[in-house]
Amino acid sequence: MTQRWLAALLAVIATCGARAHFSDWGGLLGGGRPSQPTCVDIPRNMSLCHGIGYHQMRLPNLLEHDTMAEVLQQAGSWVPLLNVRCHPDTQLFVCSLFSPVCLDRPIYPCRSLCDQVRQGCEGRMKTYGFPWPDMFRCDKFPLDNDMCIASQSAATTGKYCHTRQPASDRGSTDPTRNTCVVSMRSTLEEAGTQL
Questions:
Q1: How many domains, in total, are found in the chain?
Q2: What CATH number should be reported for the domain holding residue 69?
Q3: Domain assignment present for 64
Q4: Three-class secondary structure of residue 106 per DSSP
Q5: Nearest C-alpha neighbor of 121 from the set 5, 28, 6, 1
Q6: Is residue 74 a part of any domain in this protein?
Q7: Helices marked H in 77-176 — which ranges?
Q8: Among 139, 130, 53, 66, which Cα is nearest to 95's?
Q9: pLDDT per position as a tens digit, 36-86
Q10: Which residues span the domain enclosing 131?
Q11: Per-position DSSP letters for 36-51, written without gaps between them
């Protein structure tokens, strides 16, 4: 049933001219029309991005959608991809673009997050005749050594760990008392935002 929904919605995307939209990165990573970002509540009817750990998003978003109506229309097309569970970080990746957390500067998904989600989901999309969209081209996202949103499912690998002492242990000389920065929450805390 979920696969039929995915096929149907991806077909709607194609017939509505969304393929042309996917090839236009707009404001993502430097381009497009300038617009002062504002913070808006993530609406309850935006099912794609509920439960992501924050309640306000930046508009225009990182895909340069200027209005909430445009965000809702475009984001709704990606809900079926979440339902097929092709990768545990699909929602994190897609929502970091459609409903980015509202900060004074944008925080993009890390290239490795994009690569992992692409590896997990591209085959499912190709099954229904859809390529990985240009708007999600992984080579346009920052490397992991930059400030970016890393994979949460990679937490057990230690791949995204940074040595940092917890606030309660500041001044401690015990080198084993470190934390891993692996989640979007940690990334946001490092950027100085309160959730």
A1: 1
A2: 1.10.2000.10
A3: yes
A4: coil
A5: 6
A6: yes
A7: 79-83, 90-98, 111-127
A8: 53
A9: 889 999 999 999 998 889 999 999 999 999 999 999 999 998 998 898 899
A10: 2-141
A11: --EEEEPPTT-GGGTT
